[in-house]
Amino acid sequence: MILAVNNHNNIIKFSAGDKNKKSLEYNHDTLLDNNFATRTKIGIDKLTNALTVYPAKGFKGSKNANFYEFLTMGTVPYIIGSITMMSVFNSANKHFAPFAKTKASAIGKKMALGVLFYGLLKNASKSLVTKPVKMMTGIDTERPYAKVIYELPDDINDTDITSIEHHKVFESVEFPRWDLLYGNEEKGEKRNYRYDKIAKKLGMGENLNDSDQEVKPRIKEIVIKTNLAKNISSYLWAATGVGIAFQKPWENFFNVMTFKFWKGKEFKKSMQSFGHNFIESIKEFWKGEGKGITKHTGKALAGAAALSTITGVINAVSPKSTNTKNVINKNERYVVD
Amino acid sequence: MSSNLINNYISKSQITQQQTSVKPKPDFNIQNELNNRTFIKPLKGKGKLLSGNILYAPIDTFRDVKYSMKALSHAAKGKANDHELGKLNDLGMMTGGLAIASYLFTKKTTPLTKGMEFVGLGSFFASMAIWPKIAIQLPAYLLHGVDVQKQYQDSFGRRKPFYQDPQFIPWDLYKDEEIQKIGDRMGVPKDIPNRRDFIQEKMRKLAVQNNTLWMLTAGFATPIMSALICNQAEPYLLKYQNNQKNKKADQILTNLENYSKKYQTNPVEKSLTEIIKKHSNQPINQELIDKITDVFTTDIDPVTSENFKKDLLGLLSNDRYSINDTTAKNITANLHKQFADKGFSKEFLQAVIPDETAMIQFMKDRGFSGNNYLKVDHTEISNTIVDEIINRAHIFNQAHPDDAEDLGYIRELISANKTEEHPIAKSLKEVRASVLDETAQGKLKKLAGILDNFRAKNLSLDEYALTKVGSAPETVIANYWNNVSQELMKSIGFTSKEIEKVRFNRTLMGELLRGKLEQIVSDKSAYDRVMGILVEKVASLNTQIKPSDIASHMLTDTGSQTIYEEKVHTIFEEFAKKLREQGFTRTANSIIGNGNNDNGSYIRIQKAYVEDRLLGVKSSFNRLINTLDLYRRAATNPNALTHINPEMTLVREVKEELIELCKIIMLEGHSSDHATKFWMLRNPNPALDTSPLEVEGGKIKNKYLGNAAGTTDISTDKYFYQNAMKFLFGDEIHPDTKAILEKNVSIRDEFTRYRQLIMEKLGGEKYFAKPRHLVSGKNHTGSDIKFLLTGIAPDEFFFKAGQQAFNTKKWLKMFGGFGAGLLGTTVLIQFFLGKLKSPRQVKND
């Protein structure tokens, strides 16, 4: 539907524009620093939108609803699902007879802890791949940027048609935002300074004429391999987290567990117990019990997670061997599609 | 009024002078242009909509797996595209899920809990896939005619959701007639302008709304659906595993010889080889004997182990002991220990007890060191050493007359000890003269072979016994027990609300159960139904655990040995025979007993385990039959109550007390109640009313019971006890019960035997406070058999079963209700989705 914008006295506020700096922080797509503060800010922003703005837009069937919003809303089932899963294993226990209640509670609480550790280790373990890759290649595969979106007005009264989305430069390996990595010459930055750094780190030489063109294929390759390692290893670390949550020492923690932080002494004791039993659980997970294969499953699981991380990083930083002689077979017919 | 931009443009363009097209170049050559590919067009799109037929699901799954593997290979080489990387996330999730299930599988101890880990994983992924189909896709299609989860395949063969990105929907894949048809189904007016665009917008809106609905509901739905699937799948998995387990156990018994190869790992032989390697040709001392015994008797009971040790000692010893420097050192140390704290001065001890060097020299001088001696020679050696000490003491006394010690006391201090405590004698027999030479090694190796062979067969027998009747979760008998208890809960008619009220209190459950039973026994058809089910369920145990395979001989008359017993006898007797051949007579006796008496032997333990387990379970169910029958008898003809002494007339009040006691005992009584000959507060001066008892609704209308003051247990009234036992277990069963039992002769016989056994063994138990309270003479059966015969009290049986039923139902009610509510709400919301105001119809002027 095309609205009669010309008849609206031009009051539509492209608030990202220079003239109407109303509320948005950026007026064009902007590369952001990948630090804790930015990540937290982005995380909060995305979570808030996923729980409020995007569902509202989605339920209205807004013409501006897009794939980014749908993907961001994907956090909602994760959060609700985790809480529901904890609830499934714990809510009914209070109705059981004392003995069954004790038994069911111990399992239920371990399940809940497993859900928590799954989420924590899944997210935290990604850094085990991305950080070493960044250190070794200079490529920050997680580099965020703010994207300014111009939307269609919902109706003739809708004057605020801009919004910000938080993306990652390499979230698409087919269409990375190479443009954002160029330096701003107006600010005195060298146009290719970021690509120069990467080229140097990758051992491709210094003062290259077109460092961007030289390193782009390598960056793409590294991003793909890093994503693979991150995907597989993060789920194995998550599984390791569940394994740790299922160890017996946690039962000691559950006996003194409290979330009442205003009760200083009790809360402190609870936290100390958490730390102590966390270490004990890791030891027990590693040590194993029983005999034969059963005894070593903890080691196998943690080992698989560590191995997937290490091999993933090694694979990511190792250039693929290309036989340059046979890049183009002159006897073949090629069609560009 | 405003006009829009397009109208402005149209009106302006109408007044603009039309420009003439540029004439083609005179030298334009189409063939030349084509050859130079100036006009080359994009390749024709190969995308298509996918039908999503469920019949293609296996092919789709296979294709997905193949695609994921290809994506993995591409990604590892750094060549994957966005779509392939997206697929790798699914692969990672699946890998992680499998890792969790596999780890937890190893942590769980029973086959069901292990199996449920994978059922849980499967159900979780299934729920993720099923929920959007049944709660989103299907209702949306039925209500609006739009498949909001439509898939398409792009030109590169990649399968994607059609509405994945609402800003880039490949509408061109839909033919016009298809869109128009959907529009018709959605009720879009036919004569509106740009109808296709309007329908597409409506479809898009519906899809966006549904995708949002999916995201908001999936978090609740997936775990709950998964848990509900697990909850429903669990009994089927249990049933399947139980059948498999039972079949496997039957096969173990049939092919025991072959099956035992699984356990033929020769651990004794392996451990012995290690010991021989370490101690070959070394003297056999106590430490070595203990080591060898430990290796040989790891899985054997303590009595047999002890006998084995003795036999082993005999096998390896030659009755001689060695004396060496260590012996001399030990003697000095022992003597110092012996004289310590006895008030001797330091100087005295130093002068009298030879130090280690002196003792070694002394033993050498006397020719003791380096030789082997029989036990009888030890006295002489010991005396020589004592004489030397006395001699030294004498010299000391002469040198220190003021500090002189009593020589007789010194001699007594050493010689008065028994061999085990004697400071010299015990050191002399520390080192045996025998060595672990080739002959001894050969004997031990032969013995190890015999033991390994027996061990393998015995472990197979154990596996069979444990699978069938083990006191552990998920054994055949445990599954049977749980299954029957839940079935009986249903047939007796416990409601969820009733169970909820009484679940924390056994007494309340007892009262509820009593009410239910009294209600059932008051109606013949209800009684026949419940008793029929009970007998049928009791009989079903014999199909799972055949009496010809294992049986409790006390209850079941198998006529001869069961197959299990035959196998046990063959294996144990063969083992004992081989042991005897090796001179291990004591061990052989402790394995199969002496003569015809196998009490306390290993073979007895092996047989008794299965018998006792079966006796306990069968007695519990026979008790239930008897309880129901007793209530029926009390409800239909309580005045037919016969008594031990026909000359005595029972007054109504005593009858009321007697029937009440019997009802309580059957429902709640333990073996301790039988041991104390029942205890009841009774009226010592009952009313002399001989009027008949009255019954209403299965209950006795008590006229006197509970009204009297000063009630007490009358321990002198042996008749009351005898009458109660007779009424409980001695009187004829009710004709209705008899009729049902006649249909199942084996259960009838077991039940008859059970009642006789109770009368004989529990009725014959002597209680010191009520010595004459016997049914028919004393009986000396052990308390274990009495306990097993008593079985579980019905109130306890249903109390436990009730808790189990409540837990399952409560959970199901909570989450099943929530799941149903969620599904209902999700479907209901769909009625309000996809609303779009139709554009104004075109006016035909």
* Shape call of chain A: globular
State the major sheet of chain B.
3 strands, antiparallel
Instruction: Give me the secondary-structure category of chain B.
Output: mainly alpha
Shape type of chain B: flat
- Quaternary state of this entry equals heterodimer
Distance between the termini of chain A: 33 Å
Estimate the helix proportion of chain B, in percent.
55-70%
**Major sheet of chain A: size, sense and barrel closure?**
3 strands, antiparallel
How is this structure best described in words?
The complex is a heterodimer of chains A (337) and B (845). Chain A has 337 residues and is mainly α. Chain A has helices spanning 36-51, 53-60, 67-73, 75-90, 98-124, 127-137, 193-201, 211-245, 250-256, 264-287, 293-317, and strands spanning 30-31, 144-150, 162-168. In chain A, strands 1-2-3 form a three-stranded antiparallel beta sheet. In chain A, α4 (75-90) packs antiparallel against α5 and α6 (127-137) packs antiparallel against α8. Chain A is globular and about 75 Å long. Chain B is mainly alpha-helical. Among the domains of chain B are: 48-254, no CATH class; 321-435, no CATH class; 471-544 and 610-792, no CATH class. Helix content of chain B is 64%, strand content 3%. Chain B is flat and about 150 Å long. Chains A and B meet through α2, α3, α4, α5 and α8 of A and α1, α3, α4, α7 and α32 of B.
